[in-house]
Amino acid sequence: MKPLDVAIVGAGAAGVAAGRHLAASGLDVLLIEATDRIGGRAHTAFHDGLPFDLGCGWLHSADRNGWAALAPELGFHIDRTTPPWGVQFRDLGFPEADQRAARAAFARFEQRLREAPSGSDRASDLLDPNDRWTPYLEALSTYINGTELEQLSIRDYLAYADAETGVNWRVTEGYGSLVAAAAKDVPVALNIAVTGIDASGRTLRLTSARGEVEAERVIVTVSTDVLASGAIRLPPRASDHIDAAGALPLGLADKIIFKLSDCDGFEPDTQVLGNPSVKRTATYHLRPFGRPLIEGFVGGEAAREFEADGDAFAAFARDELAGLFGSGIRRRLEPIAQSRWGRQPFARGSYSHARPGHAAARAVLAGGVDGRLFFAGEACSMQDFSTAHGALQTGLAAARAILDSRGA
To answer: Is-contact 21 400, C-beta < 8 A?
Structure first.
């Protein structure tokens, strides 16, 4: 069989973006995906015809987000409603005055991060243990970064914070559905887990349990935890990429979706926080898009704990919601879906963060090898990591690098 021009390992946001660009340039391209669907950590599920995102759900920095620009072209609709977490939480044991104080504590903490001594790069070192809102700050980190502040590089965090525009929109039909639809003109092979890439010959040889594929060039878009695990044997010259992946682990953030049997008392697109005084708590988006749903969100150590016990997240969320709305709400909640990204073997987590002292690992991971092997994915983005639009940008960058290497 004639070798492919380009094989792309992983059909998530980065792989789809790269595949679209290269296929449109006339190259012979194949997206090779280990799972049974397109989208990666963008995944829209359905219940009784209602879509909801179990992976990324917000078009962050939407005013410069490539997926927001692409959505209308593919027939998707953008909802520009201000996110409830961008305004304030409902006052259910978290009065407005306390919310202002908590936001002020977060602003002070970010300022301390910006003023940190050059030798300090561990975010938790800048916490004030005497501040009433320190547990709140820790909880926010598990939502934003998927990990606790002890594991977070200050330099890496600020690179994202300084680039975020604060404009956040949604895809009415689901972010995951948009990413999957973008692959419609790209050849895709599903249920094929690549286990090795051999660069010793004239072409690159990709191996899997289902056989081999040869390609002139390859883009690897799998998650950092998959790379660091050694699940894919890379050429020796890519060993620095494996090390970089280990310095950019995936944090964990999971969702649980409840269907509401009665929406009375639940205003559409509002938000509540389980307990603002503790780190181990979840946030709840009430009736997204006005639908009869509640989306619970939890991250960090709590998410890992809940993944280890299949029913723990549902029980925890019910208890927190009952504490906010009264015990009667339990009868109105039907759990219909739950993500477990840490237990997905071809993801192993949610989105990347740099360990303290390792922000520079992103540039290493994004580098190519011998003009034939390229890398893309959210972790390769210098400032938009942890997002689907960051993944898209790196996929396009890898595709353009391949076209340049071919003299196109």
So the answer is: yes
The whole-angstrom separation of Cα 46 and Cα 6 is: 33
> What pLDDT, in 10s, does the model give residues 292-318?
999 999 999 999 999 999 899 999 999
Residues 9 and 232: beta-carbon distance below 8 Å:
yes
Q: Containing domain of residue 383, as a range?
A: 4-42+174-249+352-405
- Considering the domain architecture, whether residues 13 and 130 belong to the same structural domain is answered as no
For residue 88, what pLDDT is reported?
67
What pLDDT is recorded for position 89? Answer: 72
Number of structural domains (the chain) is: 2
Q: Report the CATH number that the domain containing residue 386 is assigned in CATH.
A: 3.50.50.60
pTM recorded for the entire structure: 0.96
At 260, give phi and psi (nearest 5°): -95, 125
Please indicate, yes or no, whether residues 236 and 120 belong to a single structural domain of this protein. Answer: no
| Residue in 145, 101, 99 with CA at minimum distance from that of residue 123 | 145
User: Token pair for residue 282?
Assistant: 């979840």
In order of 55, 107, 257, 321, the CA distances from 254 in angstroms are 8, 26, 10, 17
Q: Where are the beta strands (DSSP E) in 128-179?
A: 170-171
Residue stretches of the chain with pLDDT short of 50: none
pLDDT for 307 equals 97
Which pLDDT score is estimated for 119?
86
One DSSP character per residue, 127-142 reads --TT-TTHHHHHHHHH
